[in-house]
Automatic annotation (TrEMBL):
Similarity comment text for this entry: Belongs to the binding-protein-dependent transport system permease family. CysTW subfamily.
A Pfam family assignment: BPD_transp_1
Taxonomic source organism: Lawsonibacter hominis
Protein name, entry field: ABC transporter permease
Membrane topology: Multi-pass membrane protein
Subcellular location: Cell membrane
Gene Ontology, cellular component aspect: plasma membrane
UniProt-listed CDD domains: TM_PBP2 (cd06261)
Domain of life of the organism encoding this protein: Bacteria
ABC transmembrane type-1 domain: residues covered: 76-282
């Protein structure tokens, strides 16, 4: 009996070795390059800004109190508003596009997905500069508007919230289309046929069958779109010209020119908290979906 128990334990240990070999490097990578930096950012957010910038390791909550200041509160609220509008527009544009691709044959769908990804094979700065050239005062868009008689003089597009939002939508749209396409592709046609056989109109089938069954993909698209849109600063720097400030721009400035690292860390912790909240909601929703399926 002792020999059998010993062999069983040996087999269990032997079976765990491949799992440890696979999970070990990934876990080490996550600890060294994700967990420790995040904990350090949280730690820095409770420290004091030095006289000439940087950090003095004296406990303080001044950075979090500063976030409640009217100026910073307005920037945070504006960032949330823009991120929400960007996410909603990406969903409204991306869902029909994802549905159209998912209903095509596999070879056609793969080509359409490739068309979505081709712009991202180029440098993001090139794409943003292209928007600047298109919408500048003597650019093609203003020339077309004046040629059609829609305006008598060039319209100021660049360095405005409107152009920044356009840049955000075009940058975030693929991150909304791909998860929704994956969810719609798995939708069983028999469910739609059953709804039609029971006399449901196409609109009712969409609202009662298609939309609920593809909601996990929609929520994934919300996470993948909202979080980057809230914290990205390259788009606002290029298309906003420093006149349009969001959370990402303030974080970059605090860690860069202003050198107020605790405040920059506090803003980063705010973004981390939002990310954690969205992931928590998604995990809870996934568990509810599993319970309903069972």
């Amino acid at each position: 009996m002792l020999k059998r128990e010993g062999t069983r334990r040996g087999k269990k240990r032997h079976s765990r070795l491949p799992l440890l070999a696979q999970a070990g490097p990934v876990s080490l990578w996550m600890i060294l390059f994700v967990t420790i930096p995040m904990l350090f950012i949280i730690y820095i957010s409770f420290m004091t800004r030095g006289t000439f910038g940087g950090v003095e390791y004296v406990f303080s909550t001044d950075s979090y109190q500063t976030l409640l200041d009217v100026v910073y509160f307005k920037v945070i609220a504006k960032s949330f508003q823009v991120a929400v509008v960007t996410t909603v527009l990406c969903l409204l544009v991306g869902y029909p596009f994802a549905y159209y691709i998912a209903r095509k044959p596999p070879e056609v769908a793969s080509r359409l997905i490739m068309l979505i990804m081709i712009p991202f094979w180029t440098n993001s700065l090139m794409r943003l500069n292209a928007w600047m050239l298109l919408f500048q005062a003597n650019g093609p868009v203003n020339h077309a508007l004046m040629a059609l008689g829609l305006t008598a003089e060039p319209i100021k597009f660049i360095y405005t919230d409107w152009l920044v939002m356009l840049g955000l939508i075009t940058n975030m749209l693929p991150f909304a289309v791909l998860p929704m396409y994956s969810s719609i592709e798995k939708l069983q046609k028999s469910m739609l046929e059953a709804s039609a056989d029971l006399g449901a109109k196409p609109s009712v089938t969409f609202l009662r069958v298609t939309l609920p069954l593809t909601f996990p993909g929609i929520f994934s698209a919300i996470i993948l779109t909202f979080i980057p849109a809230l914290g990205i600063y390259t788009v606002t720097d290029m298309l906003g010209g420093g006149k349009v400030l969001y959370i990402g721009n303030i974080i970059k400035n605090q860690f860069g020119a202003i050198r107020n690292w605790p405040l920059g860390a506090a803003l980063s912790v705010l973004l981390l908290a939002i990310t954690a909240l969205l992931i928590f909601i998604y995990m809870r929703f996934a568990k509810l979906e599993d319970m309903e399926v069972v």
